[in-house]
Every structure is written in C-alpha cells, then in structure tokens.
C-alpha cells in the first residue's frame, strides 16, 4: 500500500484563530477532502467552501493542492449566497463555452489548434475557481469527451487498434461497440470457420442491443465489457491453442447474451416478490434462465440466426454449451462452481470435457464481474452504476415490505464497504485460482485487483477517521448541552 509519506498528505487550516491539522489520502476525491474540511470547520458537509492562502489567493480543494505549514495555514471561508450565485453564473459561462466547442468539433481539421488552446484555458479556469465538485467533474467529463472525439477523428487505423484490445481499455460508444463485437467474431476466425453470414451477424448484434434494457448497470454497455474481457482472455491466455473453435464460439456468444432483458432487479427480489419469472422457473436462477430463453428466441428468427448453417447436432451442442455458461453467472452458485474448479486445477486435463466445461464456467464468471480489473477511472463509475441499481431495488423492497440486503441499502453501504469484501473474498481468490493455469494474467488482471483492494481499504480508513471525528464532536456538543 505504500509508505505513509506517499499515501497521505497533511494540510494546516486556520479555523477561527486555531490551527487545525488535516490528514487525507492521495486517493481522496475533491469531494472527500471538502467534507473533511467542513468537519474541521464545524459546518454541514454540503457547505461550499473557499480556500485562501496567506496572500489571499484562492487554492483548489483537491489532492494536488500545495503543501503548507503551521506557520502558513490556509484560511477556510464558507461561501455566501451571493458568492454561490457568482459561481453558478461562472459555471454556466464555462459550460456554454464547452458546448460551443462541441458544436465546432466536427470542423476538426480547421479548428484543432484553437480548440486545444480553449480547452487548456477552460481546464485552468475550472481548477482555479474552486466551483462545486459535481459541476467540476461534469465540466471535466465534457472536456474529456471532446478530446476523445478529436482523437477518434484523426485515427484512421481504428480496427488495427482493436486488435490490441486489452482488459485495461475504456468502453467506446454504442456504434463502435457493435463494430468491435463484430470485429471480434471475424478476428477469432468464427465467421470464416463456421460460415456465418456477415449480414446476419450484423442483424443479430443489433437485435442483441435492442434486447438489453436501459438499466444503470445491467445494460448493453455491460454486455460489451464482459464480451471484450472474454475476447481479451482468449487472446492473452492463447485459449485458441487449447480449446476447439466451438468452445471459443460458445464463450463469446454466452458473454454477448448473458444478461439479455435484465429487468434491473436481482434473483432475490424476483423470488421474494414472487414475480412471473420466479414462478415460471420455480425460483431456480430465474433471471439466468430468462436470459437464455430470450437469447434463443432471437436465434429462432431466420434474419438473426448466426447458427443457421449448423446441422441439428452441432446446434444442440452450441445451445447446451451457451445455456450452461449463462446459468453459471448466477452468483448464488459461485461457491459451488469455484470449489469444483479448485479440485481440478492442479491436475487440469484439456482432454477431459468436464474439466474444460468447468474452466469455461469460471472464465465467464471472471469476465462478468471483472470491472475492478480495469483502471480506477473506468472501474469506479461502474461501482456507482451498480449501487444506483441496488438502491433502486432496496427502495422498492422497502415500499413493498420485502427483505432488504444490507449491501444494497443506501443507508448502510458506502463504496469502500461495498467493494472491499467483494474484491478480497470473491474476485481475488477466483482470479488467483485461474492464474494457476494462466500465470500471464497476474500482471494484467490480478495485480490491478490487489491495487484496487488497497485503494478502497485506504478510503475506508479515511471514512472511519472522519466518522470518529464527527462522533467525538457530537459527544462534546451533547456534554456541553447537559452542563448548561
């Protein structure tokens, strides 16, 4: 986790004439640091603050703020309504300028130099003005999107780059996702080897896209991420040298179809609420059974049946293999599947069909929950999306009088508490077991998981320290009130 000097920063504040020492992690977000300053100042967390140095100049509240000392503390000033109005107006002006840049981005050849200069100026203004964190992040995201658009328009070797896909890439836009998925099937030789009609492949992928719902987490973007991770593992682990092409086709197709028509409420809700899906599938993996059913309803349409050239026996093999893998994504079966794989991994036999099936089940499970393998800036927004979906479910469960899982309750869970246990006891053990067969995944996948675990443990320590400070302050206020 690194030394204290590299992991933590110390800032001194002038709070009503007394010096307050504040310690925070370099991984803290600007919002976390502002909340810490609010606690030190004794004001509500949502109070907007200005940070001034000894010369009266404004200092940006973020992990990169300059060090100071007890002799030159920063002065923290709560912002008044008039100041906030000025900031709101400034923010609107900044967003207007960003919007203007978007509208002109399509003239990239003529305006590239001007846009780059304006972006640099906007980023500097955002950093210096100390606007509200949410607004800062939105503005920065707009700037990032514009830069990505500029880069994409000057990249004429898009599909050459796709060949180099790794687990650490970000997610492209929807049209590019469809193109990427199509390219993966071509690049792995599946289209050629199984005589798949390229037009049918396009129609099938469009139909798949249309049958994913617009949930915060379980949506087509998640489908793409899981499939891209599967493609990466196939390439990284040289699976085409160990598996048949039929196995590769099953792995890829199961990844594409694994969450089709997900309603945004998990199996526990389906069973407790006695939904139509739970009744239809007798409480046995109702969602995963539904994903399989929707997948093969799509395959039943001639225009979207990529298996139309398969004979009945070959199609039966594909169907059974795809169903087996999709059903394996039910996390209720996680312990059972991983334990079975652990018993086989030390003496793994690629000629044993049971061994190969078990490995394929573990591979799709790894890909399904692999977001933390990706860089922090890609993985963390996925945590927000998952928590949003969890909170939607727990709110509904409370309304309907159904049991609520603590890890889905907005009043009980935080990002660090949600992720630490999942990474330590689910992700790392599973990926480390797979690493016994494929040591090459350690650097690309297992090490990022360990770093993510360390980062969230540091964030939890910060949260705990802030809560302890707040609790002591509350106790002092209570004692002071009693004495009066």
Structural commentary:
By secondary structure, the chain is mainly α. It has helices spanning 4-7, 30-41, 81-104, 108-129, 133-153, 158-162, 174-187, 190-193, 198-210, 220-236, 245-257, 267-272, 276-280, 286-299, 312-327, 334-345, 353-368, 376-400, 415-437, 441-483, and strands spanning 8-15, 18-25, 49-52, 58-59, 74-78. The protein has a 5-stranded mixed beta sheet with strand order 2-1-5-3-4. Strand 3 (49-52) and strand 4 (58-59) form a beta hairpin. Helix 10 (220-236) packs across helix 17 (353-368) and helix 17 (353-368) packs antiparallel against helix 19. The longest helix is centred in the C-terminal third of the chain and has 43 residues, at 441-483. The two termini are 47 Å apart.
Order of helices and strands: HEEHEEEHHHHHHHHHHHHHHHHHH
How much helix is in the residues? 55-70%
Strand content: 5-15%
* Mean pLDDT reading: 84
The count of strands amounts to 5
Low-confidence stretches: 1-5, 128-136, 153-170
Structure summary:
The chain has 484 residues and is mostly helical. The protein has 20 helices and 5 strands. Helix 3 (81-104) runs parallel beside helix 5 and helix 10 (220-236) runs antiparallel to helix 11.
Salient structural properties:
disordered N terminus; five-stranded mixed β-sheet; 64% helix; 484 residues; single chain
In terms of topology, how is this protein built?
Blueprint: H1 4-7, E1 8-15, E2 18-25, H2 30-41, E3 49-52, E4 58-59, E5 74-78, H3 81-104, H4 108-129, H5 133-153, H6 158-162, H7 174-187, H8 190-193, H9 198-210, H10 220-236, H11 245-257, H12 267-272, H13 276-280, H14 286-299, H15 312-327, H16 334-345, H17 353-368, H18 376-400, H19 415-437, H20 441-483
Parallel strand pairs: 1-5
Antiparallel strand pairs: 1-2, 3-4, 3-5
